[in-house]
Design a protein that fits this description.
The complex is a heterodimer. The model of chain A has no long low-confidence stretch (mean pLDDT about 95). Chain A starts with a helix and ends in a 6-residue tail after the last strand. Chain A is of the alpha/beta class. Chain A is built from 20 helices and 17 strands. In chain A, helix 18 links the parallel strand 13 and strand 14. By secondary structure, chain B is an alpha/beta fold. Chain B has nine helices and eleven strands. Helix content of chain B is about 35%, strand content about 25%. In chain B, strand 7, helix 4 and strand 8 form a beta-alpha-beta unit. Chain B has a nine-stranded mixed sheet with strand order 5-1-2-6-7-8-9-10-11. In chain B, strands 3-4 form a two-stranded antiparallel ribbon. Chain B is globular, with a radius of gyration of 19 Å. The chains are: A alpha/beta, B alpha/beta. Chains A and B meet through helix 17 and helix 18 of A and strand 1, strand 2 and strand 6 of B.
Chain lengths: ~500, ~280
């Protein structure tokens, strides 16, 4: 059966999912990039993965519009004046969202809701704000039907922030993903506790280490898609991945890996990224004519390429010939040391490459711990994460994460699954998050084992939507199909539960 | 100085405010009928009954004594279930320094420590030495106690402790004796003392099935004492872990909801912060 026919006859896909799949086919079939044989060999060996970005990139993968321009000036192309009240502001945002492209064709960043909307709520009652934001969030969930759609709140307490949390808890929606930018010194415990309760009940918001991001990106950063740190008014051109387990199989020993294999394939991947970035900037229309660029919602100087990797766990264990993963990476000092050495080397190699069109980033790409895709199976765990099933006790897990998170400014995170009793004690979980950020953890996600909305690897799905797919029904959310795959082949929902304990 | 440690739980969200490390000391002067970890009451008498039953060969006999290897233990707790002596062979004798080394690793993530048991005040000298070091780490210290020793004369200990969680099992001395094998006089003195020095973090009473008269008497007494000063936790009896003798004594598996409600209403009449767990 040919691929086009397969898509148009698939009863489990919605119309829009079919349309996007057909577009993806076209994008993949046209060969426009001039790539080396070395790259194609690496791709065939599954060492480099292009995450299905296709051969004809016509927009950056992740686009982070500066929505404050819309709030302050409006938009000529969309014929929108600057909004004067909350209803106009939400309406303008919803209109604009549908015109923001990305790899998924949905906007991966919706802005900082509190930054954008708080100026409009001063004279409004809570009831009116709630009514407006309820419709706003409902519209987002039903029209931007993709879990990589992501909004930010914080670091400071706000009425909008509180109402977004309250509504998220009530509405139990997988979209949008939400991040709280958290800084112990800027975020009140009260606001953080509300966020924790909401996170446990609906798997969002996640907590981003605001201090850490600000020190690398300045205040002008966003969290988009899964947990991707990117500059506001910019974004990420592309995100291919080194699959570290397969890479380790190319090496005779650790020395060979460090001195030959890793440098060789890092170079191949950087050159592949160069080709993609140049094509997007020089050939495709995006940076020449898209209104986001011409009206300065975006500035090319705020873009970089994201150098992704997966499977550090399996790579390290393979290099050390550790067969039993429970005795390896994450549970073994030597393995962790090798992991750090690999990251030091990889960071240096990527930093040494002169990247085109990344002038706002010292002409460098930035590392990203990719969360994996459903077809990875269990060969490559997400980014630098410890394999699901081999997680040590939570504090050791966090200490381990703290060693690796600094290498990934464009995103890395860990997810913890909690028992219901933690709902009674958000303060206790806040102690853990405060500690985690002191230990240099970048991004912390949690949810309750019993939730419908759960976090798979970085994105959210509803278990009830996965059941729909299980019974051959359609799911409105484009990402449910990835969640189903990650659940079935990657054991992504089987991570360890942090139990409550009781005393005598 | 070493102390017998039954267990250390690195992160607990149910033993005081915030996230805490809880240290369980072995041995208890009370023999509570409803104790749900009765293996903390006595020291191992090396009868060796558990050794053959161990599924992971974590127990062995050296010089006629039971020796425990924590590396081999799979925590199935078979040894505890076969023990007739309300003890555990899985005790680690630890120094203050052993515990502090552990706490230093946990410090970024915890608000404080809670010492529990067994009865932690059985090891009061060790506690004083431990707390001196814990204070240097700037951690909050709670002590979970049955109130069996006179805390009002333990000046050094009480200066170091930030708060006490006190079990008031019954205010009826006769019934207290039946429940615990000890009088309640000292417990009630300690309740007054801790309130007077503002160091009662919480008082606790287990609500028992088929003993409503006793339940009400205790809840009335304690909540009138606490008023607005401390929280009062009412714990529903559960038969989990309770010895056979206790299960027979209380007859039902748990207390019914109406009786619980009645107790809570009385507690809330006087004490603004009372709740059921």
């Amino acid at each position: 059966m040919n691929d086009v026919y397969k898509i148009i006859s698939d009863t489990t896909m919605t119309y829009k999912q079919q349309l996007l799949s057909l577009a993806r086919l076209a994008e993949g079939s046209e060969i426009n990039l001039d790539l080396s044989d070395e790259y194609y060999n690496a791709k065939n060996d599954s060492v480099i993965c292009d995450l299905n970005e296709g051969n004809a990139p016509y927009r950056p993968r992740y686009i982070i519009p500066d929505y404050s321009v819309l709030m302050n000036k409006g938009c000529d192309f969309l014929q929108l004046d600057a909004p004067t009240d909350l209803w106009e502001a939400c309406n303008s945002l919803l209109i604009m969202y549908s015109h923001v492209p990305s790899i998924t064709s949905f906007p991966v960043y919706l802005g900082g809701f509190d930054d954008l909307l708080e100026p409009f709520v001063t004279d409004l009652s809570d009831a009116e704000i709630e009514k407006c934001l309820r419709l706003f969030l409902l519209n987002i969930d039903r029209t931007l039907t993709d879990s990589f759609v992501h909004a930010n709140i914080g670091p400071k307490d706000s009425r909008v922030g509180r109402i977004v949390l309250k509504l998220s808890e009530q509405m139990q929606l997988a979209i949008p993903n939400i991040t709280l930018k958290y800084d112990e010194e800027l975020t009140s415990d009260e606001f953080a506790n509300l966020a924790i309760t909401c996170m446990l009940k609906t798997a969002k918001p996640s907590f981003a280490n605001h201090k850490m991001f600000v020190s690398e990106w300045s205040e002008n950063y966003s969290i988009a898609s899964c947990y991707n740190g990117l500059k506001i008014g910019g974004g990420g051109y592309t995100l291919p991945r080194l699959r570290m387990y397969e890479l380790s199989q190319k090496a005779i020993d650790i020395n060979d890996f460090m001195n030959n294999v890793l440098p060789k394939y890092t170079k191949i991947m950087c050159e592949f990224m160069d080709a993609r970035v140049k094509f997007i900037v020089e050939e495709s229309a995006f940076f020449k004519s898209n209104f986001l660029v011409t009206e300065k919602f975006l500035d090319i100087n705020n873009f970089t390429g994201m150098f992704g990797m997966v499977g550090l766990n399996e790579c390290v264990n393979n290099l050390l010939n550790i067969k039993d993963h429970s005795l390896g990476y994450g549970n073994n000092e030597k393995a962790d040391e090798i992991g750090v050495e690999i990251m030091e080397k990889l960071s240096q190699l990527v930093a040494d490459h002169k990247a085109p069109y990344c002038s706002g980033f010292n002409d460098q790409y930035r590392l990203h711990a990719q969360v994996g895709i459903d077809s990875d199976g269990r060969e490559d765990s997400p980014g630098a994460r410890i394999r699901v099933g081999n997680e040590p006790e939570i504090f050791e897990h966090i200490v381990h994460s703290g060693k690796f998170h600094k290498y990934f400014p464009t995103g890395i995170g860990d997810i913890f699954k909690f028992e219901e009793t933690w709902l009674n004690t958000p303060n206790a979980l806040l102690d853990i998050i405060k500690g985690a950020f002191k230990m240099n953890m970048r991004y912390f996600s949690g949810y309750l084992d019993s939730n419908d909305v759960v976090r798979v690897t970085g994105y959210l799905v509803k278990k009830s939507e996965l059941y729909k797919l299980d019974s051959n029904k359609q799911s409105l959310n484009n990402v449910s199909i990835f969640g189903k795959g990650a659940r079935d082949t990657g054991c992504a929902l089987d991570r360890k539960v942090e139990k409550n304990v009781s005393t005598n | 100085m070493l102390a017998p440690i039954n267990k250390i739980i690195n992160f607990s969200n149910v033993d005081g405010p915030g996230n805490r490390c809880v240290i369980f000391f072995q041995s208890c002067p009370f023999k509570c009928l409803y104790c749900h970890n009765p293996e903390t009451i006595n020291y191992c008498n090396h009868c060796q009954k558990c050794v053959d039953k161990c599924m992971s060969s974590a127990l062995s006999v050296v010089d006629n004594k039971v020796v425990y290897d924590s590396n081999k233990c799979i925590n199935c707790d078979t040894c505890i279930s076969v023990c007739d002596n309300f003890a555990s062979p899985k005790i680690n004798y630890m120094s203050v320094n052993d515990i502090i080394v552990k706490l230093i690793k946990l410090k970024p993530f915890i608000k404080g420590i809670t010492v529990s048991g067994g009865e932690c005040t059985n090891h009061k000298q060790f506690l004083i030495e431990l707390f001196k070091e814990v204070k240097k780490l700037d951690l909050h210290i709670l002590m979970d106690s049955n109130g069996n020793i006179d805390l009002s004369i333990e000046e050094e200990l009480m200066d170091l402790v930030d708060g006490v969680m006190l079990d008031v099992k019954s205010v009826d001395d006769k019934f207290h004796y039946i429940l615990t094998s000890k009088s309640c006089d000292m417990v009630l003195n300690n309740l007054d003392y801790l309130l007077s020095v503002d160091k009662l973090y919480e008082a606790r009473t287990v609500l028992l099935p088929n003993f409503m008269v006793e339940n009400l008497k205790t809840v009335n007494y304690v909540s009138k004492k606490l008023l607005l000063k401390s929280q009062y936790k009412l714990i529903k009896y559960r038969k989990y872990g309770v010895s056979e003798k206790g299960v027979d004594f209380f007859k039902d598996d748990t207390i019914n909801d109406e009786d619980v409600k009645e107790c809570l209403e009385i507690a809330l009449k006087y004490c603004n912060n009372s709740f059921i767990v």
